[in-house]
UniProtKB/TrEMBL annotation:
Pfam short name (any one): KH_dom-like
The UniProt record lists the keyword Acyltransferase: no
InterPro entries documented for this protein: AAA+_ATPase, G_ENGA, GTP-bd, GTPase_Der, KH_dom-like, KH_dom-like_a/b, P-loop_NTPase, Small_GTP-bd
Free-text function comment from the UniProt entry: GTPase that plays an essential role in the late steps of ribosome biogenesis.
Family, as annotated: Belongs to the TRAFAC class TrmE-Era-EngA-EngB-Septin-like GTPase superfamily. EngA (Der) GTPase family.
Domain of life of the source: Bacteria
Keywords associated with the record: GTP-binding, Nucleotide-binding, Repeat, Ribosome biogenesis
PROSITE patterns: G_ENGA
Source organism per UniProt: Desulfurispira natronophila
Signal peptide range: none
Listed name of the protein: GTPase Der
GO molecular-function term, one example from the UniProt record: ribosome binding
Amino acid sequence: MKKKPIVSIIGRPNVGKSTLFNRLARKRIAIVEDTPGVTRDRNYYDIQWENRPFTIVDTGGFESEVATDSLESSMVEQTKVAIEEADVVVFLLDGITGVAPDDQVIMDLLRRTEKPVFVVANKLDTPRHEDMTANLYELGVDKIFAVSASHGRGIGELLDELTQDFPLLEEYGDVDEEEVPIRLAIIGRPNVGKSSLINTLCGENRAVASPVPGTTRDTLHTAIRHNGRDFILLDTAGIRRKSRAFEHSIERYSVFRSIAAIEEAHVVLLLVDAQEPIADQDLKVASYAWEAGKPVIIGVNKWDIVDKDDRTYLQYQKNIQSRFKVSSKPCILFLSALTGQRTHKIYDLAEKFYRKTRLRIPTTEINELIQKAAIKHPPPSHTGGKRVKFFYATQISRHPFIVVIFCNYPESVHFSYKRYLTNVVTEAYSLHNVPVILKFRKKKASDKEHHEN
């Protein structure tokens, strides 16, 4: 299948890269704040313009004068890598403040590449501001696009020229389910090693990894191919307690973004720190994912530095199993993002669970299973001793996996009986770690039984 072009947006801090990224994506993906350096990593998103698909990449701000071991140094490295992997580069300037020393450094860097570069002056909110682009030509470029990312001015003209040589959508051919990239969200509390794990899985520094908690603020989309299968890794900000996270607006957006990433994902990896007991907050994060119908893998990171004896593994596993109530057989993977120990198994597990969520059960088959279960263990009686009867069941969704059971008294189906039937379906189709959602509805005269093949 033909590869979509990659367009990287680069520039010094606070010139509006994330605002432009969000404008092109038509949704708030990168966090926008009037603070330099808010975007620290690369962020990917697939879009199309005039039937021409491509991938946009948002990067951290480039600052040439930084210490080699600083977080900002990592951001500079990320920018350089984003240029290397791009097919087209958008070099964004602040059209109001003019050319800064770092702009000259970036321009010198871009002259060494043979890739198309579109120089764009941002923050030109009105036509009268466009005269301010004259001073920007000291960079030695032939054309500068005047835009306002926040208002949308000039974006259409920029995209027309930027995409004119990109392939049309129909040139890519049909995409079957086996070619859809598996979206894996990596979630957890701050500083448990999410970005380090991304880097290990990718074999390069895709995300800024730092001992400073909360280094990742955006949800970062990283495309990777493993054993012939495409994946998109979603690296999320650490989910903190709301009382702490909501103290600052950037942290607030990060929490919302992490929850949104769970919704977007096919599979969720909850990463916890092996040096600490699994916390209530970890279990709440897992519940976000489970309630959204996402398979959950519990990754116990930093296992290489834990003092162990022959009982440590079983004790830790038992502790998780006793507290992770939503699954009777939680998938637990003991790993090390630093050494790579067992990290290769993540891809296999994600693909295994993805395939399970693709399961479609014929209506006749699910009906037979529910009826047999009801005969073996009849449901509790309705008020007044009336019997609860299940008329028929049908699967209405695969991801999340939802089965609707039509009956005469849905309100009388007790939680414990719902769990019994859920376990029946789970065991029958080996759907452990895949949330099975049963919904009970009252059968109406207008309802007709649906048969799915």
